[in-house]
């Protein structure tokens, strides 16, 4: 199978494998890919829009899932749209640091400085990722760019290091061009362990972002936090600065597991952290767990999930441990000293998580992520939907104007890079576009990214949008490739009302020729994207018809009935349960005809399904870009919720 895939597809597959359940990774390995090294292979790193690896990191699932929700919280972040007075955020930061003021930071809708040029490849850029690389110690599974600061992060020399890093980061922000005129709607502080950063420094960053890009009222501002690095006053200080969402990297509720993976916190600190998070009353918070840790048993896993649910989070991220090249875990594995759960046990644990969390009211909205209604991570959905975003900091990967760009992952190289950027003519004018010299992603890359990311979410692939972007032929190929998986229950379609339908019915319901409503949807999708490709979708229904199932998948009578329903505007009958709650529908892709993988079995097999879909396109290697390193930094080719450098942030080992 792998030989049939283009290089890009194969790499994407490997990248995705790195973040999926062990069973999936095993499937990828059998296809010839080396998942363990996928994210760190020389010359290539998975792009930020691809998926992340199975373990969650400190909490930074920017992909993670650590983030979620939107809107400001509980009174600590004002949602008013008042214009910001210069220096206001700085004042709030100072108050937060002092901890004595009750004044809140007002997130503004001001018109920030900097040039607005309609950017993001025709889209406003509404999201920013900020990498804060400091941790108490380095976990045994971690391959992120991290600086260990020891057990006393409040030591003057440690705070001086952090302050110097923030100075550098702010230079990068000031030099960067603003694309579009809309303010930021999501900001994600990932790491590293962002909760090590003193509130005053965090306030400086938010102030700089607000001045430069604007931060929308009610924006989701997420911060990854590890137990043992914060207390209630610190959380309240973050809240006054506008932090609305916390992602807490607990990872396990067994002391022996925390010890075995070298975490910087113990179980008592985890319990204290959860108590503080609950008392802080943030609008939304996520709890991160890692499955597949050495010594973890299914019973222990079930106990951790139950304890997590009892803690009352709004969101849970579950990452499967991925052994990364160059880590102590990798060395111990090679030496036969690392005893990980068997693949079968890992698959069982994945199913247990899906079952328990769904029963507790969480929507399984992405392979590794679960959310209560209204608490999906807005920032991670930007990655999964292929939308543009800024990124700042060590090793961080941005996606602007169709170009993915990763900053240097060594501190000295990053500092040099920022100095060169800021001192350049465009940097001094605040007009730099890091990575702007790189070629845009090709249509093939965009297509593969879109499919790989969308098929790992509960929203699935929006057929009207796929047609508008990539033409009707792409829709036909995808539907054909999914038909065998539909027959075994791993894939299905959803109509505009969120009801389950067959893929044959979806082909008809989404065809502009067979269904006039679909033509309107295609035109709307094209208009929303601001391009002309949507018109190309018109009149291309023949390819979709080719996706009609054969006798085994559906009858001609069923197809005719579906066509009649579509043309009359009537709803297709439900074939199964509705696709999630009403809230989930509202939060997801309501109104679109979509195809998706089932939960949890389809998600568990997502690598297999995605590889089949990629193979169906039969893209030649020459049609795919290599995305090798670049002189300014490093280009990341893949995607995912993993930051920095496009490395999957969470789904593997969390911080
Ligand atoms: S896994 Fe997270 S907490 Fe651990 S060293 Fe890496 S970034 Fe830090």
Automatic annotation (TrEMBL):
Q: Does the keyword Transport apply?
A: no
Pfam families to which the protein is assigned, alphabetical: HemN_C, Radical_SAM
Q: Which UniProt keywords apply?
A: Chaperone, Heme, Iron, Iron-sulfur, Metal-binding, S-adenosyl-L-methionine
Task performed by this protein: May be a heme chaperone, appears to bind heme. Homologous bacterial proteins do not have oxygen-independent coproporphyrinogen-III oxidase activity. Binds 1 [4Fe-4S] cluster. The cluster is coordinated with 3 cysteines and an exchangeable S-adenosyl-L-methionine.
In its UniProt record, which GO terms are filed under biological process? porphyrin-containing compound biosynthetic process
The record's section on PANTHER family has: COPROPORPHYRINIGEN III OXIDASE, RADICAL S-ADENOSYL METHIONINE DOMAIN-CONTAINING PROTEIN 1, MITOCHONDRIAL
Composition bias (Low complexity) maps to 15-59, 94-114, 548-561
| InterPro entries assigned | Aldolase_TIM, Coproporphyrinogen-III_oxidase, Elp3/MiaA/NifB-like_rSAM, HemN_C, HemW-like, rSAM, rSAM_sf
Q: What is this protein called?
A: Radical S-adenosyl methionine domain-containing protein 1, mitochondrial
Q: Which domain of life is it from?
A: Eukaryota
Region listing for Disordered, in residue ranges = 15-75, 94-121, 533-585, 620-655
Molecular functions per Gene Ontology: 4 iron, 4 sulfur cluster binding; coproporphyrinogen oxidase activity; metal ion binding
Query: Entry's SUPFAM superfamilies?
Result: Radical SAM enzymes
User: Which organism's genome codes for this protein?
Assistant: Chlamydomonas incerta
Q: Which terms in the GO cellular component ontology are assigned?
A: cytoplasm
The family note in this entry says: Belongs to the anaerobic coproporphyrinogen-III oxidase family. HemW subfamily.
């Amino acid at each position: 199978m792998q030989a049939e895939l283009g290089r890009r597809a194969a790499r994407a597959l490997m990248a995705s494998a790195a973040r999926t359940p062990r069973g999936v990774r095993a499937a990828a390995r059998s296809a010839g890919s080396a998942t363990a090294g996928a994210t760190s292979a020389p010359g290539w790193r998975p792009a930020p829009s691809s998926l992340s690896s199975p373990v969650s990191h400190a909490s930074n699932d920017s992909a993670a899932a650590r983030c979620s929700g939107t809107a400001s919280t509980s009174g600590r972040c004002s949602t008013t749209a008042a214009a910001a007075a210069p220096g206001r955020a700085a004042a709030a930061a100072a108050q937060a640091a002092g901890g004595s003021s009750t004044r809140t930071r007002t997130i503004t809708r001001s018109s920030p400085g900097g040039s607005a040029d309609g950017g993001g490849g025709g889209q406003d850029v509404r999201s920013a990722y900020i990498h804060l690389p400091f941790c108490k110690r380095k976990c045994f599974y971690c391959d992120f760019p991290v600086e260990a600061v020891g057990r006393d992060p409040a030591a003057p020399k440690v705070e001086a290091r952090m302050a110097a890093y923030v100075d550098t980061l702010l230079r990068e922000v000031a030099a960067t061009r603003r694309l579009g005129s809309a303010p930021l709607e999501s900001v994600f502080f990932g790491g590293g362990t962002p909760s090590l950063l003193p509130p005053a420094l965090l306030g400086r960053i938010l102030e700089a972002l607000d001045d430069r890009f604007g931060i929308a009222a009610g924006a989701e501002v997420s911060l990854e936090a590890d137990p043992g690095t914060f207390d209630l006053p610190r959380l309240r200080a973050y809240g006054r600065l506008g932090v609305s969402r916390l992602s807490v990297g607990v990872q396990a509720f067994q002391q022996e597991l925390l010890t075995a993976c070298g975490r910087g916190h113990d179980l008592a600190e985890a319990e204290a952290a959860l108590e503080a998070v609950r008392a802080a009353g943030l609008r939304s918070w996520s709890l991160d767990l890692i499955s597949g840790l050495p010594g973890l048993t299914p019973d222990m896993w079930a106990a951790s999930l139950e304890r997590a649910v009892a803690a009352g989070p709004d969101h849970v991220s579950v990452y499967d441990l991925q052994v990364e090249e160059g880590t102590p875990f990798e060395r111990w594995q090679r030496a036969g000293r690392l005893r990980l759960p068997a693949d079968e046990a890992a698959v069982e644990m994945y199913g247990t998580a899906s079952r328990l969390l769904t029963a507790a009211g969480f929507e399984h909205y992405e392979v590794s992520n679960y959310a209560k209604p209204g608490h999906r991570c807005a920032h991670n959905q930007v990655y999964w939907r292929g939308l543009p975003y800024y990124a700042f900091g060590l090793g961080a990967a941005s996606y602007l104007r169709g170009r993915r760009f990763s900053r240097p992952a060594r501190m000295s190289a990053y500092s040099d890079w920022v100095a060169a950027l800021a001192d350049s003519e465009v940097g001094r004018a605040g007009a730099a576009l890091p990575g702007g010299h790189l070629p845009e992603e090709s249509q093939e890359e965009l297509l593969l990214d879109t499919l790989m990311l969308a098929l790992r979410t509960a929203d699935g692939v929006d057929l009207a949008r796929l047609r508008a972007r990539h033409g009707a032929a792409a829709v036909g190929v995808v539907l054909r490739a999914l038909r065998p998986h539909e027959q075994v229950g791993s894939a299905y379609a959803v109509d505009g009302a969120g009801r389950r339908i067959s893929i044959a019915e979806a082909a008809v319901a989404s065809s502009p020729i067979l269904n006039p409503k679909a033509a309107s949807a295609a035109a709307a999708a094209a208009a929303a994207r601001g391009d002309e490709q949507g018109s190309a979708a018109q009149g291309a229904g023949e390819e979709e018809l080719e996706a009609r199932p054969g006798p085994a998948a559906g009858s001609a009578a069923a197809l005719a009935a579906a066509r009649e329903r579509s043309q009359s505007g009537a709803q297709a009958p439900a074939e199964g349960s509705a696709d999630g709650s009403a809230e989930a529908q509202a939060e997801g892709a309501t109104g679109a005809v979509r195809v998706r993988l089932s939960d949890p079995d389809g998600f568990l097999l997502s690598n297999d399904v995605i590889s089949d879909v990629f193979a169906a396109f039969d893209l030649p290697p020459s049609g795919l870009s290599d995305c090798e390193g670049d002189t300014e930094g490093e280009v990341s080719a893949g995607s995912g919720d993993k930051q920095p450098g496009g490395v999957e942030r969470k789904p593997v080992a969390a911080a």
